[in-house]
């Protein structure tokens, strides 16, 4: 019998007490920092409504080793643990001042368990958000401290290994991005390179007919619900009507009309929000080449407004002869597979470790509730 089993058998045989998150800590909200003030390379990350920092700043308003939860945006409900001092923006919740009865790292693992539920509870017709009341009402198991510490030790071992693998993958992706940018710098080595506006190469489709009506997602359903942000797949729906039919022959680029994030999609899907465009090629346009060229565009949005029609579609990209486009795409597709294919290499290992972590997290954090 393991140490944890012995502890649970001796200390939790009659169940454990559950308390709400609002009873166990304070839920603070960050402070607005306008996008025009964000730095590319400041001292502290700015944590807002996304999965990655929205930029950097030379001041911080929260100390390190704190739990954050995205409050607003396509990734609202995303749970993170920030290990450096940081600036929390207006679309970010921060959990502070935990009570002595709860191990703060255990609190992180429990709320991470709720992440999919939180992300599917987004409300709002404009910028989706998760309410502080929803967070405060989450029920948290509070086993004896000795049990909490042993659970944290086990789960932290999983997250540390995943962090190491992720760092290695990040290094590979930087290498990939370097070669991608070099290949797409075609003017330096290819003749007859034109400059063409994205709007001359791509048409757009409004997403409204394809918005999911019910956000009660389940992995048992078949159709993914997408966002153009990094979270990409928000969940799966069983809705069968108004599904966008993308295939490997007829793919589409989904474009976040506010952040300008892009994703390549070659499978059927629905979307959560109207804040995007579906970009499709005009006649005789290599969409995959355009996608890679768009991945190299350095573009910072300075105001919360729709970007495609007014600005982004007017950006020019180098457009070499078709033969050169196909050569570039073939090389980059091989690189992309090595770095991003979930069926092989580091992405597959990270995915396996994440599933292992989720399995043990859900198993270890399931307690019978102690009766009054």
Give the CA-based shape.
elongated
Which value, in Å, is the CA radius of gyration? Answer: 23 Å
Rounded mean pLDDT is 90
Number of helices: 10
Strand adjacency order, main sheet: 2-8-5-6
Could you give the order of the helices and strands? HEHEEEEEEEHHHEHEHEEEEEEEHEHH
Question: Would you tell me the structural class of the helices and strands?
Answer: alpha+beta
Q: Give the biggest beta sheet.
A: 4 strands, antiparallel
Number of DSSP strand runs:
18
Distance between the termini: 30 Å
> Uncertain runs with pLDDT below 50, 5 residues or more?
none
Helix content: 25-40%
Classify the beta-strand content into a percent band.
Answer: 15-25%
Overview of this protein structure:
The chain has 372 residues and is of the alpha+beta class. The chain is 33% helix and 20% strand. The chain has helices at 3-11, 21-24, 104-113, 115-119, 132-136, 145-183, 198-201, 287-295, 322-340, 345-364; strands spanning 17-20, 26-29, 44-47, 55-57, 66-70, 79-82, 87-88, 92-96, 139-142, 194-197, 202-205, 223-226, 233-237, 252-256, 262-265, 270-271, 276-281, 316-319. The strands form six sheets. The protein has a four-stranded antiparallel sheet with strand order 2-8-5-6. It has a four-stranded antiparallel sheet with strand order 11-17-14-15. Strands 4-3-7 form a three-stranded mixed sheet, with no helix packed on it. It is elongated. 30% of the residues are buried.
